[in-house]
Design brief:
- The chain is 38% helix and 26% strand.
- The chain is α/β, with parallel strands linked by helices and 372 residues long.
- It folds into 4 domains: 63 residues, Up-down Bundle (Chorismate Mutase Domain, subunit A), CATH 1.20.59.10; 87 residues, D-Maltodextrin-Binding Protein, domain 2; 75 residues, D-Maltodextrin-Binding Protein, domain 2 (3-Layer(aba) Sandwich); 90 residues, Alpha-Beta Plaits (2-Layer Sandwich), CATH 3.30.70.
- Helix 1 crosses helix 3 and helix 2 packs antiparallel against helix 3.
């Protein structure tokens, strides 16, 4: 006699029907595709209007506004950072339908500058590796590139002098910034005990000094042009390693021997996007300027005083030799606000009274830290 199934108890939860749930997901996916294509058509029309008006295709202020709005409106459970990454790809893909941007970065592929370019523009853009920072500046100036992504400072190592010096004679502007949290890993084909040489860019060596001293005190540290180049070299032998990104491990077929080996857990590099464009205000902006002082007592205090009077916060200051004559220096500062704001424009105008030269490097949207 067949055993009768007991009826479900009153109030008992029904088992989820996986097939039914998957059908709902498929229906949503179809709707998402339809909406994405509608968005792409509208983006193409915006691009056509920009072309007629002679406006730049890439609008960093608009992009930042969209990403900030997503962060505020996302109710979850989809992670906000992941949502912003998806939207960066969507915006880049829509823009590429009209005109793919030619974007230069400090290469080769899988370097942290490459990751920064992807974070800013997505994979759909025409991303091109360059050997040096000066090559990127030159290519943008000659209109071989629309934009360039260059490192400007690291939270552990400080300013990147090659980038700062390049602004001295360049007409290019800063149109965007990106703060990328740098996670460094030891990559190799073999095991930790077999490693005799470690390849990397000089900065990661300094950023991982403590870990290397404690774990690989006998290994020879070999400086190369980039972390990606180091990974390429490490992949050729089993007794070598590199310091680089997880992406580099995947590209060059290396194992992640140790992850997160940087001495500072908040190790962050700030990248700048350079181009001839002048983005409009986004509502949360920074302005970067450079200046040289008149040779008189109290000149630096006098030149910074207008910022204090206008209530403008200065977020960074650095100084470099001008390379024009001995003991002549150029100051670089970042301040809150956009050059189109009256108080910012007035303060910078008043700086001229105490300077030989004042140059606005750009006003651009401020960026939150992203994980590399």
């Amino acid at each position: 006699m067949a055993k009768r199934k007991s009826p479900p108890r009153k109030g008992a939860a029904r088992r989820p029907n996986i097939a039914s749930l998957r059908r709902e997901i498929d229906a949503i996916d179809t709707e998402v595709i339809e909406l994405l294509n509608r968005r792409a058509v509208l983006a193409q029309r915006v691009g056509e209007a920009k072309s007629v008006r002679g406006q730049a295709m890439f609008d960093p202020a608009r992009q930042r506004q969209i990403l900030r709005r997503l962060a505020k409106r996302n109710p979850g459970p989809y992670p906000t950072l992941s949502l912003q990454r998806v939207w960066t790809e969507i915006m880049g893909a829509c823009l590429s339908l009209e005109q793919p941007l030619r974007v230069g970065y400090l290469g080769p592929e899988s370097s942290f500058s490459h990751l920064a370019a992807i974070h800013e523009f997505g994979h759909a853009m025409d991303l091109r590796p360059y050997v040096s920072i000066s090559d990127i500046f030159h290519a943008v100036e000659k209109e071989h590139l629309d934009c360039g992504v260059v490192p400007i400072e690291n939270s552990t190592e400080g300013i990147v002098h090659f980038t700062m010096d390049s602004f001295l004679d360049s007409p290019l502007k800063i149109c965007s910034e990106l703060l990328l949290r740098i996670r460094l890993s030891l990559l190799a084909k073999g095991t930790l005990g077999k490693i005799k040489r470690v390849y990397s860019h000089p900065q990661p060596f300094r950023q991982c000094h403590r870990w290397l001293r404690e774990n690989l005190p006998q290994a020879k540290l070999v400086e190369v042009s980039s972390t990606a180049k180091g990974s390429e070299l490490a992949a050729r032998t089993s007794d070598a390693a590199s310091i680089g990104s997880v992406v580099a491990a995947e590209k060059y077929g290396l194992k992640i021997i140790a992850e997160g080996i940087e001495d500072d857990a908040d190790n962050t590099t700030r990248f700048l996007v350079i181009s001839p464009m002048h983005p409009g205000p986004s509502g949360d902006d920074k302005t970067s300027i450079m200046f040289t002082l008149r040779d008189k007592p109290g000149a630096l205090v006098s030149v910074l005083e207008p910022l204090d009077r206008k209530g403008i916060n200065m977020t960074n200051i650095d100084v470099r030799p001008s390379r024009r004559r001995a003991f002549d220096y150029v100051f670089f500062i970042d301040l809150e606000g956009h050059i189109e704001e009256r108080r910012v424009a007035d303060a910078i105008e008043q700086m001229h009274d105490h300077c030989v030269m004042v140059k606005v490097l750009g006003s651009y949207p401020r960026q939150a830290v992203r994980t590399g």
